[in-house]
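Internal tracking record. Fields below are filled automatically when a chain is submitted to the structure queue. Please do not edit lines marked as system-generated. If the sequence contains nonstandard residues, flag them in the REMARKS field before resubmitting.
Queue: standard
Priority: normal
Entity type: single polypeptide chain
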Amino acid sequence: MKSNDSIVSSISHGAGPPSPPRQRLLRLGASLAFKLALSLLILTVLTTVLILWRTEQDTYLLLLDFGKAQARIFLSDVEEHIEINAPDLDPGQLQPIIAHFMSEAPGGLDFRIEHLFVADRDGKIIATNRNERLGTTRALDPVLARAVDENRMAFSEELNYRQPATSNDARLVPTMDVVMPLHSIRATWPTGLLGVELDLSASAEILRNRYWGIRRDLLANLGLLIGGFGVLSFVVVRRQIIRPVIEMARVAQSISNGDLRRRIPSRGDDEIGALANALNQMTDSLQATIADLKRTEIVAMTKLTELAETRDPDTGAHLQRIPGYCRVLAEALRRDPTYADQLDDEYIQTLLESCVLHDIGKVAIPDTILLKPGPLDADEFAVMRQHALAGADVLSGAEFLDMAREMALCHHERYDGAGYPRGLSGEQIPLAARIVALADMYDALTSRRVYKEAYSHEKAFALIREPVSHETASALLAEESGRHFDPHVMEAFLGSEHEFRKIREQFAD
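SYSTEM-GENERATED OUTPUT FOLLOWS
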């Protein structure tokens, strides 16, 4: 018969032996902690990248606005000089103005002038600080075109990174193009254009130095915040998630090992609590299912036992005495260190429920042989021996009858290997079969039977009709220690003769 352990294993369809529970739970906790730490690390990295990117974007936009504001101040000053000294945009009068503003750095402004020019409405440069550009046209310049079309100051939409024309430095610097319309006294639309290309590298350096300190402090505070949040999250997650999950894993491991008594304490109505309640309900259902299976097993055994009894009218109280004898032997063997681990409560209970089926194979033996009043001849005895194989066949196919099948098949094997049907010897014979073999022989010797096939023909003939006394039976069995019977089982029998006598007297035929 299968134990609860086996039934749980069958229901859960487990494959292969599980790893030690403690190691699995430690791996589970470590895995959850690692995933939490990794998640926090990824969050930190992503947040840091986002802050750095956002800071760079803000610095870029601030530099763009900063350049626009300074260009507006600078060009307004230049425009004022042009309106006073060169209102007709005479190149001869404009050039000294440009030279003046190129030679004197604008006060309080953080940029360097790359190119300062005046152009007519068509974009042709008529005055400039760079002679190579004099007379060239910038009609296609989008900033210049926007200044003409919109009749107001126009700026570059984005910073341009160029190599400075007035420097040997090979690095690219941020530049901005700004163009404003120039008007004569009575003109509504621009009569010319004033433009400048600003090198904003100095402004960028100022902003970078200013905002790097802010960014560094921000990142330090962010690190402390995320670190503190990580520690707090780990404590909370460990308490609210990891610990309950590990506890549920322990309970699940116990269930898979056949212990259906453990339950998970209620944890409220959150997701973890719902999972714990579901596991408890599953365990309750599994326990009820196993109880139903157990009841089914007992009913099945009872019916099979009744079937066996109907074939042999001489058995009397035989099926009441056999479980008693087996219980006494099992309890005595349990005190032997050799069998202490194997003979637990569950094994003994299964043994007592199964032992009554050891002779179930006799249902396949013809009445002419089974109920023959005299000794069996050699051919009849050969047929009688088939009841061991027949019993095993009857009980095959049902896992909960595994122990009963072993006893039916092997209760006529001998410890010295001279038994049947397979000639097994020693511990090759299942322990349950070794126990029931001695119990069955004792009961056969002390009961009225038409044959005693476990002995030689001569001994069976001598004992054919009348039962022998307890003392005679004990002496005959003791002679077979180490030959017919397991010496450990025989020692248990000899130490329990009083209990055997009481059972025999209590359930007399």
